[in-house]
Design brief:
The chain has five helices and 14 strands. The protein is α/β, with parallel strands linked by helices and 201 residues long. The strands form three sheets. It has an eight-stranded mixed β-sheet with strand order 2-1-3-4-14-13-12-9, sandwiched between helices. It has a four-stranded mixed β-sheet with strand order 6-5-7-11. Helix 1 crosses helix 5.
Length: 201
Amino acid sequence: MAIVSSMPGNVMNLYRALKGLEQNLNVELLEKPARSSFDVIFLPGVGHFEEAMRRLRENKMEEFLLNQAEKSFIVGICLGMQILFEESEESFSSLSIRGLGLLKGKVTKLKAQVLPHVGWNRVRFQNDKFKDLDGRYFYFVHSYRVLCEESLVVATCEYEEEFPAVVMKDKVLGVQFHPEKSHTVGKAFLKKVLECASSQR
């Protein structure tokens, strides 16, 4: 298992949360591409979409992640979830910025008058794998949301508009909230994610 550490993100919080699930869990931090493959790769991110993609390209991690997508279960967290999609309007210019394109869809700004969306909010899960967590509260910090096909959406949240909170297709999963900041319920979610990854092997 690996955590990509080549762009800003809550890397150590996520590392501690994963180790808290199982002390013997082998978790590596990746700033540069590795020769080995991993069962699960976490892509946590905070900050600006364009800057994050620039960092991934500079560190040769974009190509690495695209190559690993056929072998590994990839989990994007917050900005990391948004980067899984094809493009985002969060740029330093008026042009859209290309993402990894592992999932079809684009990232747009939330319509809420007060941004960012910060704090605990209820998440409604539509997938039986996560039914035990339906209606629980998770911690969010974001100003952008994903627009994608309904078939990808595993869970939703509402902040003046409904948006995808969790998406999944095959071996790619994205989560808009921060499980590593969501205490006990966040750990329960991460455990479910690892179960999903195991079922895809």
